[in-house]
Amino acid sequence: MVLYLPIPHEILRKSRKVATVNKKPTDVEDLSPEPLATTPSFAVWRDVDDAGETVYHLELGMFTAHFFEEDWKELVSLFDAVRAKSAGMGPN
């Protein structure tokens, strides 16, 4: 996991039509980040890095965590386990 400063949502909305690989522009269909879910304080979005790997970005206020596919799946299963345990606890 790598931690970075958050990327403003305005940047996420911009679509990129050219990717730079080895400092040579390469036409691609669309490399725009894909928002998966957002709330007023949090956001999850998916993008593809320069090496072609899928990267998931979890924005928690001023904190952003970036996960490769394998780590993201592990985090999602962790949240699923938390949801399953907390489901029987009743309303807050």
Describe this structure in words.
By secondary structure, the chain is an alpha+beta fold. It is built from two helices and seven strands, in the order βαββββββα. The strands form two sheets. Strands 1-7-6-5-4 form a five-stranded antiparallel sheet.
- According to DSSP, the number of beta strands is 7
- Derived structural class: alpha+beta
Instruction: Tell me the count of domains.
Output: 1
| SSE arrangement, N to C | EHEEEEEEH
Low-confidence parts: 8-29
- Overall form: globular
Mean pLDDT, to the nearest integer, reads 76
**Alpha carbon gyration radius:** 16 Å
**What is the makeup of the main sheet?**
5 strands, antiparallel
Give the % helix.
Answer: 25-40%
Approximate strand percentage: 35-45%
Report the span from N to C terminus. Answer: 31 Å
Helical run tally: 2
**Strand line-up of the largest beta sheet:** 1-7-6-5-4
Keywords:
92 residues; 7 strands; alpha+beta; 5-stranded antiparallel beta sheet; 2 helices
Short description:
This protein is 26% helix and 39% strand.
